[in-house]
Amino acid sequence: MLKVPYVMTPGPTEVRENVRLARSVRCTNPDLDAKFYDFYRETCKKIGELLKTKNEVRILGGEGMLGLEAACASLTEKGDRVLVIDNGIFGEGFADLVKLYDGEVVFFKGDRREEINLEDLRNFLDKDSNFKYATVVHCDTPSGVLNDLSKICPMLKEKGILTLVDSVSAMGGENLEVDNWKIDIVVGGSQKCISAPPGLSLLSISKDVFAAMENRRSPIKSFYCNLLIWKNYYEEKWFPYTPPISDIIALRTAVDNILADDGVLKRHERIGRSVRKAIIEAGLHLYTRNGYSNTVSVIEVPEGIDEKKLRKYMVDNFNVMIAGSFGYLEGKVLRIGHMGENARENIVVYTLYSLQKALEHFGFKCRCDISQLFLEEIHSL
Ligand SMILES: *Cc1c(COP(=O)(O)O)cnc(C)c1O
């Protein structure tokens, strides 16, 4: 058997035992059994509760990327102007999906160490707001920057622009109010703060999006990524493809776990704040200057340290896995995921303890006892 470390990465995350057990129960035929359609619909309703929305919710059989591509495929037609709000790797990555479906990308670029500046965005939109939709990332995981959707999405919607949000690494760990914030499509994944096994995308889809899909001049250029074919699955008792029933049963348990825990966001906030405080006190530097997500901490690699070796040392000696990053951040930052089931004091203390031991092994001298400072801080909140 695979030796499994404590997975303190920004997804996949630890999966609670009741979720793992749920995944192993006997299954019916999900295409033919009417009761499964009810189960699927109820699960969607519960996800809607989590997202604070009355919009339609769908669960797709494929990790977060599928939801993102499906949203772009379903909305984009040849020549459509799409605003891509970019202050990170996933922010920029939306442009590739838009282009794949022949959309015309216009970037709004922010500073990659900061959350999107609202005044700059407003000035930009006052000059040009002729966009079918805009894309924005909630928490851009490679850098950990968190954008203020509560302000960004209403600003876009006011200009008649549909809003497409990637909240894969924030949904379930950061506040998300789909209806109040006017989010037309929000995409999440099963494997991040939801703490279910990887494999599912979750989306909420507004009436405006259904209208936009129905009023297209040309058909959606995909089957698997077509959100419109999901519209009447319940009435028609027809799924476009056999739903991954075991994954969906597990997801339902994970969602029930979150809904039963009314302190879940507070828990993420206390953990996130305390980790950041301890990291700074130790003489390390956080990557961003503001817009800190409570789901992941992104730390600059100290001068002279090889982050790959450091991470390997943590796995070999402490059985703790944290992450590096990719793209322009490769080799430059370390990332500790403290999301979902991993937003817990005991495992975060152990992770910080192992990080300190590893840093010291490679010659970095911490200015304090990181795990102790974390504990003092969290108990003062
Ligand atoms: C994890 C993640 C995704 C999805 O990536 P997968 O490869 O499907 O896990 C999308 N967006 C963000 C911001 C993410 O953190």
TrEMBL record:
Pfam families xrefs: Aminotran_5
Residue list for modification N6-(pyridoxal phosphate)lysine: K192
EC number in record: 1.12.-.-
One of the record's GO molecular function terms: alanine-glyoxylate transaminase activity
Keywords: Aminotransferase, Oxidoreductase, Pyridoxal phosphate, Transferase
Top-rank EC class of the record's enzyme: oxidoreductase
Cofactor(s) listed: pyridoxal 5'-phosphate
Any one Gene Ontology BP term: glycine biosynthetic process, by transamination of glyoxylate
Matches recorded under SUPFAM superfamilies: PLP-dependent transferases
Annotated binding of substrate, by residue: R335
Domain spans labelled Aminotransferase class V: 30-264
Alphabetized InterPro entries for the sequence: Aminotrans_V_dom, Aminotrans_V_PyrdxlP_BS, PyrdxlP-dep_Trfase, PyrdxlP-dep_Trfase_major, PyrdxlP-dep_Trfase_small, SP_NH2Trfase/AEP_transaminase
Family (UniProt): Belongs to the class-V pyridoxal-phosphate-dependent aminotransferase family.
Protein name: Soluble hydrogenase 42 kDa subunit
Phylogenetic classification of the source organism: Bacteria, Bacillati, Bacillota, Clostridia, Eubacteriales
